Amino acid sequence: MNPSVAPDLEQPQIETAHSPKRWLSDWRVAVLLLIALWSVVYMAGLSKPALLDDADTVHAEAAKEMLQRHDWVTLYVNGVRYLEKAPLMYWGVAASYELFGISEWSTRLPLMLGVLAMILATYGLGCWALGAEGGFDSALVLATALGPFLFTRFLIPDVAVGLWLTLTFWLFMISLEQTKLDQPQAARWVCWGLGVVCALNVLTKGLIGLVFPIGAIGLYLLLTGNLRHLLKMRLVSSALVFFAIAAPWHILAALRNPAQGKVRGFLWFYFVNEHVLRFLNKRMPRDYDTVPLVLFWALLVLWLVPWTVFLPQSLLEVPWRWRDFRLQMTRRQRAYLLFFLWNLVIVGFFSFSTRQEYYTIPAIPGMALLVGGWLQRERAAADDSRERRSGRISSVVLLAVGAIAAAAGFALLALSKPPAPGMDLSDLLRKNPKEYALSFGHFLDLTPQAMGAFRGPLFGFSLAFLLGTLANWILRRRGRAGAGNIALAAMMVVILACVRVSFGIFSPILSSKNLALEIRKQYRPGDQIVVIGLYENASTLNFYSGIPLHSLRTPGGNMWYGTQFPDAPRVWETQASFEEMWNGPHRVFLWAEEEDPPALRGSARYVIAREGGKFIFSNQATVSR
Q1: Range with the lowest mean pLDDT among 165-179, 187-201, 349-363?
Q2: How far is it, in rounded angstroms, from Cα 591 to Cα 380?
């Protein structure tokens, strides 16, 4: 049997290297290695940096208020209903708060555990479809890829979507194998398991938890001429399992948030506004931007760095010819076709919709499996084989990229200078507010002068990229492809550590934590906090101080819908109501991104704190405590 092909029904021989005894031993060692790698990459520095403004603390605040209100159905942020998101991630974070207290560490813990589960699920599916070594290589790729790490630096549910999709497609492939044995139906645990994981996906990020599996599985069955397989999936009982898990929250949310006067109820807002109208780019309010289509496609490949260079040859293993679809494909071929469709459906869906940089993250496990399977084939091939030659060519390409990146990094180090002591990083940035609707829009503010603040991580990144790609090239030239993979993984451990340090340096631009702590020192009962702009622009003030925020602007953003309800707290201020508040007897703290905001022109003010280009003004002088 070809060592690159996993055991299959059509190939009953058992390869010696993958005998049950060896498999059990390798499984234990592999899992321990993956957990250790995950711990180093994802768990190190879990308490730093501070949580960020916008999605990070908006979502953390929703979990905190869920716990405080003992309401696990209707989400609230800043005392206002927050109905646009599915609840599962918030349940997890609220449970973490209950167990470990409210902190950065406990906020991020559920997300990190989700990453570990996704890595191990990818390993399991890879072992099942590609063999033990292919499973380990797939998990190694996923654990050290750039994209999943970047998009676990703030609290979003997309990694969990990737986990549920991995389990969904694994169960579907098992069902295919079971029915190939002429069983009239797939096993109950398989079909009902599909209902469970699809329901959890819907509770994680809405209807795409159904759209993505149905799209990929439907295309697979259509291409292979096997639509009758659906009749073997126990659709009625599986649907009952799905609805038993997914329906109760939606029903309760609808009952507790009905239409009230001119305010449409939960069902319209959640399903029509947040799903249909968002897809059509007509969501209300339109407070978001969309990534250009070509860039969106390119980012899917970028998120797999450095393993991207092995993707072209991985795709060559996907069955492409129509007649191949209708033949008796091996387990590996079926898996490769499904992994490809997994990516195609996600990218295709968002190509016709609004999109953010991280919307492709649920596709990354599928890409990791494509690449991991090929890495296993390369390592098992003879030295003069096409696979080994292809691997060496990819190592040359990666070395060239590493050399260019290192040269650029060292050039920046030579040109930049450390900032003067006490200088605020924001003074060295060039503001691009029109880009801030994108996840990483603030990083476009960086200038060569600002890079001087990142000299340490920039040096580490540049050196690691150069040495890692060089070691990979040398090892692959010597026929040690597996060692080359380890060199790339070690390189990424260093690079991702440098990224984590850079986030910490940049965090005062993205977070208002220190300003919130300064307000907390001065706060007295009856004081108010006002934000110039949307609530989410300074949501860390609310999370870290525990004090509700008022917004000096017309209703909009994440809080728009909730403020339409008659029982919503009054959190929007006009210029007239703000001036009355500012000139009143109570202390007011004003958060602004300007040193001389128009809202205070002609009014007495005191600067309480300043950091990251943000200011806290007050209508009363600092009080000594």
Answers
A1: 349-363
A2: 60
Taking phi first (over 0 means left), then psi (-120 to 50 degrees means alpha), and beta for anything else, what does residue 187 get? beta
Query: Which residue would you say has higher pLDDT here, 70 or 441?
Result: 70
Instruction: Name 461's Cβ contacts closer than 8 Å, sequence gap at least 6.
Output: 405, 409, 494, 495, 498, 499
Q: Is the pLDDT of residue 451 over 50?
A: yes
CA dist 144 and 139 (Å) reads 9
Position 354 scores a pLDDT of 81
CB 78 within 8 A of CB 559: yes
Closest CA to 170 of 206, 133, 138, 207: 138
- Looking at this protein, which amino acid is placed at residue 412? L
Tokens of residue 149, six digits: 């790490």
User: What's the rounded Cα separation, in Å, for the pair 63 and 69?
Assistant: 10
Q: Looking at residue 411, what DSSP letter applies?
A: H
Nearest to 372 by CA among 111, 1, 16, 30: 30
284: which DSSP letter?
Answer: S
Q: How does pLDDT run across 385-412, given as a tens digit for each residue?
A: 999 999 999 999 999 999 999 999 999 8
Confidence of residue 179 (pLDDT cuts 50, 70, 90): confident
Nearest alpha carbon to residue 46 among 93, 111, 101, 97 = 111
Please check whether residue 577 is in contact with residue 479, taking contact to mean a CB–CB distance below 8 angstroms: no
- What confidence score (pLDDT) does residue 13 get? 33
> Can you read off the two tokens belonging to residue 179?
């029915």
pLDDT above 90 for 443:
no
Which pLDDT score is estimated for 16? 36
Within 13 A of 360's CA, how many CA atoms are on the CB side? 24
Got the DSSP string for 317-381? TS--SHHHHHS---HHHHHHHHHHHHHHHHHHHHHTS---GGGGGGGHHHHHHHHHHHHHHHHHS
- pLDDT of residue 21 exceeding 80: no
* 587 and 593 Cβ atoms separated by less than 8 Å: no
pLDDT tens-digit profile of 270-291?
999 988 988 888 888 766 667 8
| Phi, psi at 264, each rounded to 5° | -70, 150
Residue in this structure with the two tokens 């676990």, named with its chain if needed: 152
The CB-side HSE value for 596 (13 A sphere, CA atoms) comes to 2
What is the C-alpha separation between 528 and 618, in angstroms, rounded? 10
Rg of the chain taking only CA atoms, in angstroms: 26
What does the mean pLDDT of the chain come to?
Answer: 89
Query: What does the alpha-carbon distance between residue 175 and residue 474 come to, in Å, rounded to a whole number?
Result: 43
The residue ranking higher by pLDDT, 443 or 87, is 87
Sign of CA dihedral 402, 405, 409, 414: positive
Q: What is the pLDDT of residue 432?
A: 56
For 108, 166, 276, the CA distances from 208, given in Å and listed in that order, are 24, 14, 11
Average pLDDT over residues 39-65: 94
Segment 567-576 long-range contacts (CB within 8 Å, at least 24 positions apart): 568/79, 568/80, 568/81, 569/78, 569/79, 569/80, 571/78, 571/79, 571/80, 571/535, 573/530, 575/599
Q: What is the DSSP string of 217-270?
A: HHHHHHHTT-GGGGGGS-HHHHHHHHHHHHHHHHHHHHHHS--BTTB--HHIII
Nearest to 127 by CA among 118, 137, 117: 137
Spatial distance between the Cα atoms of 494 and 41, rounded to a whole number of angstroms: 9
For residue 396, the number of C-alpha atoms closer than 13 Å in the C-beta half-sphere is 7
